[in-house]
Write the structure tokens for this entry.
Amino acid sequence: MVKGRIDVISLGCSKNLVESERLLRQLRAKGYTPEFDSENPRGEYVVVNTCGFISDAKEESINTILQLCEKKERGEIGRLVVMGCLSQRYLEDLKKEIPEVDHWFGKFDWTGFVDMLPDLKKIENKPKLWEREITTPAHSAYLKISEGCNRFCAFCAIPGITGRHTSRPMEEIIEEVRSLVAKGVKEFNVIAQDLSSYGIDLYGKKSLAELIDRIADVGGVEWIRLHYAYPADFPIDVLEVMARRENVCKYLDIALQHIADPVLDNMRRHISAKETLVLIKTIREKVPGIKLRTTLMTGFPGEEEKEFEQLLEFVKTQKFERMGAFTYCEEDDTYAAKNLEDNIPQEVKQRRLDELMEIQQEISLAHNEEMVGKTYKVLIDRIEDGKAYGRTEFDSPEVDPEVILPAEGLNPGEFIDVKITEAYPFELIGEIADGDKI
């Protein structure tokens, strides 16, 4: 155990990661030595920022906590602290089941942990709560613009964990962007549980377009990418900004979940199949060349073979450039858990998922093959074993294909023109075009 060291282990999504980065900044200001996601935590305190959204994430969080309890018992670490979505959702049960944990905090009261720690040095300027230490590559950061969700989809536990949708003020977001640019961040991946509702609570109207336009005005912002838009009440005016601004990537992550009306109704998605198709057509028309990422679900109550075939046909005809999918799993305290029978066998759900993703793999390969012989602006993320790994504007970190090319003369954070020479379903091979960097 190392005195003054605090290990922070961040589990779950990018929104959780932002909270962990804010915690790191606060701890550093008080004179502690925070270590992020160390494979060998040895701190005076170890903080686990948990995920409680779906069963696999909950299991990972609990297993991590239990492993750290064993380390604590052996004297390898000091006190164990748990925060985040899992403890926000199941606090009282967890306290009873895992008494070895020293301190519990939820998703929103984690600053209580910082406040309870004695200062190890005089704090000249206390950091603002949005300030953070970037744990992603130094040139790229997630930018969380709101918290919570008012949609209450039947399958989703997020509103019960995060509460109602709450937008951050534009001025604060812009201040954070300027601060991150000054530290070398060039790419901003804008995230929220529901991008589409940004601004309604603060400004009385959907304000995502105005916000993105203002972020694009900040000098040094090279790429802005939008994640987790909601299809119902989508802010169409953001498409005009995307089409007009060169530093707004022609990329949109919009979770559609399904296309069959009976399933959409059961899901309480507030949108019909016809409206979904019109929306997709509108997006592609207003932003020529845009790449869409979506998420779909198999096995939700009401998905009979007819509805699943409709979903398959939807994927075949729409040809989403990027797509993820998962099987339905009943979540505690959701509308579906309380009101709908989870009567589709898991093997059927999985068979449908496998069939869906097999089709998508062919589509993804076809899209990537269309890129061969063309030149794209690529942001280099990292150098490993003599190879450079980067992404085009159409690819988000961690979930989308990478571009791989010889690393000679390249550095992380550089933009270069790359000619694509080979294509695979989930990666591209390229070479520097004409030997030029941007």
Q: What stands out?
A: The first strand starts at residue 2 and ends at 10. The mean pLDDT is 94. DSSP finds 14 helices and 18 strands in the chain.
